[in-house]
């Protein structure tokens, strides 16, 4: 007996993933941690790079590998910034996965790192798989 080339559930996987990505992007413009995290997989690999003068870096502790770490990240980010808008740059959707690249406009609501950035606006790039 051979394995069929396409599993019964596969044709709907891309559509479900695309719907989840769109919900995630919309939820990120809220401060609702539960709504945001409802769109995050329980099997996570969540990189939170830090922008430095040398470029983007991933220091120890900046790759989150548990859902609880991701929840804590989103719960704590409101102390630093809010997402004002998210602009989709590129989206690739297949029956197996969705990759979305976007640029988000953020407004600082407090300190970022050791600097008070309250009221400053900036743009960051992100990718969702």
* Main beta-sheet strand count, sense and barrel state: 3 strands, antiparallel
How widely separated are the two ends?
Answer: 33 Å
Detail the poorly predicted runs: none
Q: What is the number of helices?
A: 3
User: In what range is the share of β-strand residues?
Assistant: 35-45%
* Helix percentage range: 25-40%
Radius of gyration: 17 Å
Overall pLDDT:
81
SSE ordering: HHEEEEHEEEEE
The side-by-side strand order for the widest beta sheet comes to 5-6-9
Strand count: 9
Give the structural class.
alpha+beta
How would you sum up the global shape? globular
Describe the structure.
The longest helix is centred in the N-terminal third of the chain and has 19 residues, at 10-28. A hairpin with a 4-residue loop joins β5 (81-93) and β6. Helix content is 27%, strand content 36%. The chain is α+β, with helices and mostly antiparallel strands and 129 residues long. The chain has helices at 10-28, 33-37, 67-77; strands at 46-47, 50-52, 55-57, 63-64, 81-93, 98-108, 111-112, 115-116, 121-128.
